[in-house]
Automatic annotation (TrEMBL):
Organism of provenance: Tetrapyrgos nigripes
Keyword GTP-binding in annotation: yes
Protein name: Guanine nucleotide-binding protein alpha-4 subunit
Domain of life: Eukaryota
Disordered: annotated span: 1-50, 118-139, 173-196
Amino acid sequence: MVRPSVTDDDPITRALEQFQESETPQQRAEAKARSDAIDEEINRQRQAEKREQKPIKVLLLGQSESGKSTTLKNFQLIHSNKAFKNERASWRAVIQLNVVRSIRLILNLMNAVQAASAYPSPDSSPIGESSRPPSPWPEPIPVLTPEHLKLKMRLLPLFQVEESLLRRLSPSSANEPEATHLHPVTNLPNPSRTTKEISIHSTSPWKGAFGRLLTGRTSVDSNQGIDFDDPKDPGVVLHNCSEDMIKLWNDPTVRSLLAANQIRLEDTSGFFLNDLERVTALKYVPSDDDILKARLKTIGVSEHRFVLKSGISTTSAKEDSLLTKVREGNLLSRDWRVYDVGGARSLVRGNFSTFFLLLIPPPSRTAAWAPYFEDLDAIIFLAPLSGFDQTLVEDPEVNRLEDSMLLWKSVVSNPLLKQTNLILFLNKCDILKAKLEAGIQFAHSVVSYGDRPNTFEATSDYMKKKFAAIHRQRSPVLRTFYCHFTSVTDVSSTFRILDNVKDLIVRQNLTNSHLV
Ligand SMILES: Nc1nc2c(ncn2[C@@H]2O[C@H](COP(=O)(O)OP(=O)(O)OP(=O)(O)O)[C@@H](O)[C@H]2O)c(=O)[nH]1
Ligand SMILES: [Mg+2]
């Protein structure tokens, strides 16, 4: 049996066949030329579409702990209010680690006091002053009671928790020779450099570390992915130590030890000691605010993709036409790529890591990095103002604020970035305010500040002018100075600022694509 071909009954095919049979060679050539022209036009339009739809690329830059990853978290929250839904179990672990780190710092201080008081004072020492290491303590050395020592012993299980959390979160970074993000206790008789900071390489699937372990368990909180009945849950040990941790943190001797070493734990990254009861509760689930406060150092570079909407306000006739074009072109939703890089320098002095790769001109810059840094629409540069009285963890001789200004200078003056919008976030304003209110004198660290008032308004304005002057003097082309005072751990104020920034970047992107 002969099966009818599919085209047998197709009237269009039949008509075309008849038409082609009656075509002259010249007509056929003309038809082909027309068809080619149409194909060419379609291709041209596709290319144009591609150009117009090119994603908006934003790079977050700044020294380590400046707030880059926290700004990224704000982008994630803007993108979706369920941003951290599947990650809460892992963030809970990071927060638990942050708590243990703060406690460890206090216990290290107590060890140092014990060691210092083990030496007899020069008056009673038969061999005199020379046998005694220089003491960082104001005399007399604060006295630890037997109760303090018992407290210390009862908190030892926390260190096992730390090891196990680190293993689960970052098996690959366990050998990273990194000092702590906490205030380095360098002037103590036995300075402890043992508190490695937890860092996660951008390629590590750490956010799944806990989720994977939980699959199939019936006790898992299905909304948050946290298994509260896991017998190995570090939360149990933390909960059992909770009362002792609270006692330690509220102890007057401990507070005076911290003060004597000029350590304000409350200003350090990942500080949760004022929330111990809440964060060590057995059923603790981190809030968005907690996740923003959690500290996890970034290594490498990671790309984050979002579709973000931009509502461009119309204030002029020109902008009205822009808005129409944007709407006609359906460009109100745009693809965004936000790049978060690790800001820490290598511990080898002068050897800069991720950050400075940006400043090396191609082709010396490795090809693998190129896609991240070509065609950048904007750099959000974070400079934490609160670092005015701190030094870098990586290099204790470098003042943090001064370092931020040097980095800003190199970014601003870089000819490769002259087309890129630079948006400066003078960050950690909340900590700056708290420090000034606690009586810390800005002028002690920033000598050029002189006898101006020790207020937030005056100091922040002074620093803004400094950064603006660098921008004006060093930029290879005339550019607008965009600057915001930020506290990126504050979701609502950051939401407003990022909304402005988003609109600005989209507007510039459209201008550059000649759509306006
Ligand atoms: N109080 C306060 N804390 C902040 C602010 N910005 C960031 N932090 C905290 O500072 C710590 C460091 O912030 P990150 O965003 O991890 O810093 P980073 O720039 O990504 O650092 P690296 O990954 O090491 O390059 C985190 O614990 C944040 O919660 C701020 O404006 N105010
Ligand atoms: Mg980071």
